[in-house]
Amino acid sequence: MEARKRFHPHTSKEWESFRHDFTRLYQVEGKKLREVVELLRDKGFQANEHHCKTYIKKWRLGKYKKELEMIFAAQIQARRQGKKTIFKSRGQECPDGEIQRYWSRRPEEPTDFEPIPKTPEGLEYWTPAPTPGGTMTEITPLEDVSSPEILSCFLPSDRSVSTRTSPRITEICDGAENNSPSSVDDTISVDGCSEACREYEQPSCPSSTEVAGVFLPAASQILMPNYQSLTLQPLQSPESIRDREYTLNCGREYFQWWIEKVYRARIAWNHTSPAVEKFRNASYSLASFIENDLSRDHIELTYLDLVEMTSHVLHRENPTTIILLMDIMGIAVQNFPKALPKIQKILDHALSQALESSGKDHPSTNLMRAIRFACSDFFDFASCAILPGKDLLAEALNDQNELVANLLLLLVDLGIRDRSPTAFQYAQELHQHALARYRTEKTDAALFSLSSIAVRITELQRRQGNYDEAMGLMKDASGRLSAFHDTRAQVQGRADLLLQLGYLKWDEGHFTAALDAFNQCLSLSLRVFGVDHYMTMHTAAWVRHAQKIVDQEARGTEMWSRLHAASL
């Protein structure tokens, strides 16, 4: 029997044409979904509620998020004691009085809810610019989410502990019309950090006036590779500036040290060690176990294995160590928030080992310490640490060196997770690198690198809504899989592409097709990785979710058919 074809009333472009009215009715006016669907019928809107739920998630219009934003906004207003504050939700500025009107319709008070420690995703807030002749724009103060005693072991010895963690930088320029808001970051936990870590003192950082010529990422998160050619604008948040200055300097000092003391001294190092890959996979699996609520014994055993592996994996002579730690932290921050405290403990253990083996003044220790401090504002700090390494290593080694490619790959992954506009730039640069390497070597390793970056570019296109371009890239990458000599690498490459295909079909609202892709990916993941691998667990979660939606649609279709037959 021919498979049932699913009806899709609108293309992606048509959905975008309805987005403004849909957002206004559903998010701003707070109407129920069925009311929104009926009100939009007159404008040619033909989708049902199931289709709408997909785009509600894609556009981040959930009612829960609205309530969360209103609780957070009211709590911020109460703490600021009447000071003028502008809120912006998903690009739209909240009208004056909207927060008060919202709470006037609710039986509860904002004080009835627990304090929200972090700014909800998509919400921004700031103090408006002053009138001419007034003072400089004020940075929104952050709430104290970590104790000074804890932070003191991660801060430079010549500065007092701020009650802020890692605010985003607001750039103050003459005549500026928009000012980026600061945000409340997650608490920094240092459980498991050794006494040696607590006694360690960071070298003093220069003040902002002493670092002309050093680029620091602004709140817009636009990170540019030619950071040394830029000068600083006057800024009003010296603590946040100096945090990034310190990270940037640590990255530059470490990679300069590595070039001079390791690479030019021809000290042996192996950036493709199987132990590194084993540590990475075990870290991802630990995060998946915690996120999927596996047994406590299973989690603890994996954690203890990771702690034991750190001494065999993390070496100061190997820059892959830095890439490895940042990659693991980025995955945890973005995809496994429940696992973040455990991942931080592993990082604490690695830092204490670095202190014991290298000493507190070694560039590798400084950079690892900067990474640990970056846990509260990870993507900004990680990019600060890596950018100097990319440029320094590209000049000292050559643009085709595999270590340079690994740094570029990390920048791409950081950009994807943080939705940075520079991700495409780094991805194209990395694609040229991988293509040149493959044409020269014609090996499975070179082909796998080319396939991996094709998957990243596909994900970037998909996240931008460029579904046709993403599908074309997947077809090209799929055509190259037959060139693999290693069957395992071929199957792994196919599994990566099927996972991206499932994401794409899900975004388009083709849930049956998405389920088929996820099922095929799960079958290959079980074959290549096994049951406990993070890739298998992640794909299995998507299979369950897609199956639930498809079953709901099937029941809805069956009920509609019965009603239609009864009416005849």
Unreliable segments (pLDDT under 50, ≥5 consecutive)? 1-5, 130-239
**Overall geometry:** globular
Helix content: 55-70%
Percentage of residues in DSSP E strands: under 5%
From the 3D coordinates, which CATH architecture of the largest domain would you assign?
Answer: Alpha Horseshoe
What integer is the average pLDDT? Answer: 69
Strand order in the largest sheet? 2-1-3
- The Rg value, from CA coordinates, equals 25 Å
The oligomeric status of these chains comes to single chain
The CATH topology of the largest domain, please?
Serine Threonine Protein Phosphatase 5, Tetratricopeptide repeat
Query: Structural class, from secondary structure content?
Result: mainly alpha
Task: Report the span from N to C terminus.
Answer: 26 Å
The first-level CATH class of the largest domain is given as Mainly Alpha
Q: Report the biggest beta sheet as strand number plus sense, adding barrel if it closes.
A: 3 strands, antiparallel
Domain count: the total is 4
Task: Write a concise synopsis of the structure shown.
This protein is mainly alpha-helical. The protein is 60% helix and 2% strand.
Task: Provide a descriptive summary of the structure in words.
The chain is an all-alpha fold and 568 residues long. It is built from 21 helices and 3 strands. Strands 2-1-3 form a 3-stranded antiparallel β-sheet, with no helix packed on it. Helix 11 runs parallel beside helix 15 and helix 17 runs antiparallel to helix 18 (467-480). The chain is globular and about 80 Å long. This is Clr5 domain-containing protein. Residues 12-63 form the Clr5 domain. InterPro entries: Clr5_dom (IPR025676), TPR-like_helical_dom_sf (IPR011990).
